[in-house]
Amino acid sequence: MTLYHFVGIKGSGMSALAHILFDMGEEVQGSDIEKEFFTEIALRDKGIKILPFSAENIKEGMTVIAGNAFGDDHEEIVRARELGLEVTRYHDFLGKFMGEYTSVAVTGSHGKTSTTGLLSHVMNGDKRTSFLIGDGTGMGLPDSDYFAFEACEYRRHFLSYSPDYAIITNIDFDHPDYFASMSDVFNAFQEMTKKVKKAIVACGDDENLKDLKAEIPIYYFGFGEHNKVIAKNVETIETGTKFDVYIDGTLLDTFKTPMYGNHQVLNALAVITICHLEGLDMQAIKDALATFGGVKRRFSEKKFGTQMLIDDYAHHPTEIKATLESASKKYPNKEIIAVFQPHTFSRTSAFLQDFADSLKIADKTYLCDIFGSAREATGELTIKDLQVLIPNAELINEENVAVLKQHENSVIIFMGAGDIQKVQKAYENLI
Rounded to 5 degrees, what angle do the CA atoms 219, 130, 150 make? Predict the structure, then answer.
């Protein structure tokens, strides 16, 4: 049996794939930077070895899977090639792996992780479904019928996949360090549709998706009457959201989700559509939908006295608006406090005013320093460039988190794709 070595195992997709192979009985280890990351806890709990980066980690006979964030000049990749080992990129390995299952790719600019988590949970209510989620969660179930996975558009990596179905949640301009324009983003998704075998399930309320062309059926879902799959009679209830689903004008059933916000209803519609197309037991699907507990770093809640602390991955203006909308619907009588850490200088620069506009929805905003990525560690922009655009916004870090104590009976949402959790942890330790 070969030993799978993951170069960059703490990455969300990489760690999820490591879980899948481990669950299937394979021998797995990996390496990464020594900085603590939220994905490593579950890996260590399974006994998966995580080593610091070193050429010495690479041995004869290994199968090396390399994360997309690391170039061919990385010391471990260089060493692997010196030893004559095949080095497979994450997206290429995943593309081959899914061929054994009926596969469902979940893609889109926003909501991929939440929708993939919901899809895998709901489909497992009726059929065995292995899954890979962008929050670092993955599971390889023996004798699975289906494989649900998150497919990222960055650098067009999703073109490595040929899934049976694809859910497209939305299209928006993001990753400005790679995509040149909104039309460049659209063209990437248009190209991706050619790789899908059976059908595409797309949000018909998204203006950027209406011009999508495909040789296979496109099943549009949403709230608008022009869609094939429609949510009607949407009602916020004490335990979440209730809504009716109509397909081609005929009532399919009434569904309940413990989630809040219109974007959560759209996620559910996409999942229900896939299950309907595959002829899954709809009562089992209903029951599973009602018990979905969410995914990591997506509206993850902790209660401290009269305050509710929420950890959320939102790092784009559209995602921030959706998260704040969910909080307002779930907690209409509480003050909504945003604690936001921008992720990458290029994204912050490209969406500076949009970030300001989305954060103004909150009753009060606190800002952390910009988090640079491995690809882009520095920039001329500073957090003060965003602060001046938001009335009464204040700067916050691990040392001055006590300022949050003044917000009694509030929902404090820590948002970002970097290491915003350290600020939340510092506040939790304080209170």
Answer: 55
